[in-house]
Structures are given as structure tokens and as C-alpha cells.
Specification:
Two copies of one chain form a homodimer.
Chain A: H1 5-31, H2 34-40, H3 45-51, H4 55-77, H5 84-101, H6 103-114, H7 122-146, H8 155-171, H9 173-180, H10 187-206
Helix pairs in contact in A: 1-2, 1-4, 1-6, 4-5, 4-6, 4-7, 5-7, 5-8, 5-10, 7-8, 8-10
Chain A binds a DNA duplex (30 and 30 nucleotides) through α1 and α3.
DNA sequence: CAAGAAAGTAACCGTTTGGTTATTTTTGCT
DNA sequence: AGCAAAAATAACCAAACGGTTACTTTCTTG
């Protein structure tokens, strides 16, 4: 199979990004080594700098990919005419599922939070996440209209909860697993936690 | 004021640890620079290595301090004969309060989770945290006995929730603040979140 | 095919890193 | 006072770091 020059170039770029995702997820920006990324992708370090100006720029690109990764999954999950309670339950379960399958994503976001979320322009981040926010807010409002959600529920707090409880579980899993002497990231435990969290939120909404 | 040799030595050690807490909290293990710690504590780098064998050992010590820090606060919070519901509410609120006042602690723990919790021996960690675990478990059991907590409540899940929701809020605050265009770490917002979380857990227990 | 552009390589560079050596100063004890 | 142990300093080191230079090979296109 003959590839054109620019196709090969794109392939190289992807190989670099793949290796970069691994390295940055594992060690963060400070810990990641440009040489390690070059070697892992089987290319020369010079080419890495030809494709991505600097370590910083490469890191930003990796992060953007990670955000787009989950944003795509979130979009799939948004169903216009689903019942509010089911929709929120579904969203929470989807998030647990996604994070179980994508441990690298968890780590990249944790590093980024420690970097105080400076590596990605705020407006790009908002653009990616705003639809999800709006989706959950609307479901809550609809629920109130239908009478399945209490009027006094603070939608701001629910949005925060729906979007962070799953992540919190995984990001603390190592410490907590050590403490509980149990592998909390097993499929079984994750499923149970997912069920608990969505149930808890729903009970609060309906209470 | 004349100090004895070993007193001065202890003071130097403390100055190093103080600077190390700052540096490691800010930049994590990889990002932290031994030279920076030495300079910040106003001592010679050689003395740092005299007191703490290596960068790794120093980091482990810093982490242990951080854990002892909150463990002390947790012990204060444990009241033997308090009502189970009040006790759990109180514990959650205390945790929010502690984390609001100790942002360095949050960062140190986040780094450590990214290190997959390898820097501290598991048994030391368990020794520090087990009392808290047991306290919450007992309160739930007591609640069930008194009839204020539902029988079907999974105590394992509640322990996990009580111990991680506050932390989750703070550790994602930067990303979430950017998304919500609002400073979530203001005293006001933290208080509201604390109230919401404890209320949510309690509602679930009683439901 | 010619020739220039793009892709790729190896060797190198200045700086910074964690850690050490050799040496001097201060302290504690008799 | 005298002397050994502990505390402190400055200068240093090999390795590793992000990034670059100078050069060769491969591809595209008139």
C-alpha cells in the first residue's frame, strides 16, 4: 500500500499524539519526557517538534483531545424526549461507564485540575461543555414542570453533582481502595457505585 | 536566646518541611525542585540531604504530615454519644470547613492519587484512617437500630460518600469554576455546597 | 527526469536536575 | 582550654532535560 506524503505525515502525527496521551496521562506535564514520547511513537524527536512546536503545545493538544473524547460520548447520551428522572440516571451511569473504560482520561483531567486548568483556553472548554450543562438544567426544569422533581431543588447543585460524582469516585479510587482493602475499580464495584449514586440523586430530586 | 544544637537542628528540619509542603503541594513530586525547597527554607541543600535522605523520603514525610493533619481534625469531630444523623451531618460540614482552610492538603492528596498512592505505606495509612471509618460505620448501624436510618442502606457506600464528596468538590473546583463562570471556592459557595451535600446524604439515609 | 519541498536522522548544546565531596564553622562535653 | 561530633557551606558532578543544527533521504510535481 502506497501512501501519499501528507497521509504519512498525518499518520506520524497520530502516532505521536497516541504516545503523548499515554506519557502525559501517566506522568503529567512536568513528569512526561519528550524523548520518551518520541521513542514510544518510533519517530525522531526532531519530527515531534516539526509537528508540535513545543512540549506545552503538544500537551494542550492532548488535553483538547481528551475533552472532545468525553464530549462526544455525552452528546450520544442526550436524548431529547426522555423522562427527566431516567435521563439523569442514564447520564450518571454513562459517565461511570465511560470513566471505567478510559482511565487515561481520568488521569489527564486530574493533572489538569492540578495545573489549575490553565492549559486549555476557557472559551474552548465552555464550548465543549455548555451543551451538557444545558441538557441537565433543562431536564431538571422539565421535571419540576411535570411534578416529578421538587420545586425547591437547586439545579446548580444537581448539575455539579451529576458532573462530578463519577469522576470523584475514580480519582480517589487508589487511596480508597488501599483504605478499604478492596479493588474499587472492578467492574462489579463500579456498577454498584453507579447504581448507588444515581439512586441517591434521584431520591433527592423526588424526596 | 540560646538554643541547643539539637533544638536548632529540629528547627531547621521544620523549616525544610514547611517549605517542602509548599513546593510539593504546588508542583507535585516531579515538578518540585530540591533546590527550590532548600532556598525557600534558607538552608543549604546539603543539610536537606542530611535530614532527609532523598527527595522521595522527603516527599513521603510531607505526605504523612498532611494525613496526620486531617486525622487530628477528624478525631476532634468524633463525638461518642451524638445522634447518628447529626454526627454524619457534622462530619461532612467539618470536612468542607477543613478543606476550605487547607488548600495545600487538597493538592497534596491529589498528587498522591496520581502517584497511585504509593508514597505512603498502606498500613500507616490504614492506621490513620481506620478510626474515622469505624466511627461512620458505627453511626450508621446505630441509626438503623434507632430507626432513623433505613435498613437497606449500604454502609459501605455511605462511608465512601461521606469521605469523598467534600474532597471531590474542591479538587474539581478550578475546572468547574471556569465552566460555571463563578468562583466555587468562595466561602459562601462552599457553605452552600456543604449544606447541600449533608442534606442529600441525610435525605438518602432517612428516605 | 529535475529540482525543490517535505520527511526523517543523528549528533549535539546549554541548562537544570538530584545528589555529593571536600572543607570550614559551631557546639557539647570533659 | 581542647577536641571530637554535629551543623553548615560552596563548589562540584554526571545524567537528563527540552530544544536545535546540519545533513540525508524520500516524495511530489512541472
Amino acid at each position: 500500500m502506497k501512501l501519499r506524503q501528507y497521509e504519512k505525515s498525518e499518520l506520524t502525527k497520530e502516532r505521536i499524539l497516541e504516545a503523548a496521551v499515554d506519557e502525559f496521562a501517566e506522568k503529567g506535564f512536568y513528569g512526561a519526557r519528550v524523548d520518551a514520547i518520541a521513542e514510544a511513537s518510533g519517530i525522531n524527536k526532531r519530527m515531534l517538534y516539526a509537528h508540535f512546536e513545543s512540549k506545552e503545545k503538544l500537551y494542550a493538544k492532548v488535553l483538547l483531545i481528551a475533552y472532545e473524547w468525553i464530549a462526544a460520548r455525552e452528546r450520544e447520551c442526550m436524548v431529547e424526549d426522555e423522562d427527566p428522572i431516567d435521563a439523569i440516571k442514564g447520564f450518571v451511569n454513562m459517565t461511570f461507564d465511560f470513566l471505567l473504560e478510559n482511565p487515561k482520561f481520568i488521569r489527564l483531567l486530574m493533572w489538569e485540575n492540578l495545573n489549575r486548568a490553565v492549559s486549555i483556553p476557557k472559551d474552548e472548554l465552555v464550548k465543549l461543555k455548555e451543551p451538557t450543562f444545558e441538557y441537565i438544567r433543562q431536564k431538571i426544569r422539565l421535571g419540576k414542570k411535570l411534578g416529578t422533581v421538587r420545586e425547591s431543588v437547586d439545579e446548580h447543585q444537581i448539575v455539579l453533582s451529576v458532573m462530578s460524582f463519577a469522576f470523584a469516585y475514580f480519582s480517589n479510587a487508589h487511596t480508597m481502595s488501599a483504605l478499604m482493602d478492596r479493588n474499587l475499580t472492578s467492574r462489579e464495584d463500579v456498577l454498584r457505585r453507579s447504581e448507588f449514586i444515581s439512586d441517591m440523586i434521584v431520591k433527592y430530586l423526588e424526596a
